[in-house]
């Protein structure tokens, strides 16, 4: 039984071609899985603040700031200079009070 060296080389090349194809497919699968997973995490991060209040069993009431609280905020802001940015989470008492003080 003679040993054919060329036959072994052909077999190893075929084996390496199959491994390369499998690695390429595996890499593409990982990229697709990562992209889908990242998209779902981003969607959850964007949608969660809007969906979470609707899922609460107890609805929290709106409680406006008292005059004493507004005065405390104004006292702190008097020591600062620059622009005031309101995030819009209330009824605008602090901004309207500041506006009336600045225009007087």
Automatic annotation (TrEMBL):
Q: Name one GO biological process term.
A: regulation of mitochondrial ATP synthesis coupled proton transport
Please indicate which superkingdom the organism of origin belongs to. Answer: Eukaryota
Q: Which UniProt keywords apply?
A: Membrane, Methyltransferase, S-adenosyl-L-methionine, Transferase, Transmembrane, Transmembrane helix
Q: Which residues cross the membrane?
A: 28-52
Where would one find the signal peptide in this protein?
none
Could you tell me one molecular function GO term of this UniProt entry? protein-lysine N-methyltransferase activity
One Gene Ontology cellular component: mitochondrion
Record's protein name: Uncharacterized protein
| Source species of the chain | Oryzias sinensis (Chinese medaka)
Phylogenetic lineage:
Eukaryota, Metazoa, Chordata, Craniata, Vertebrata
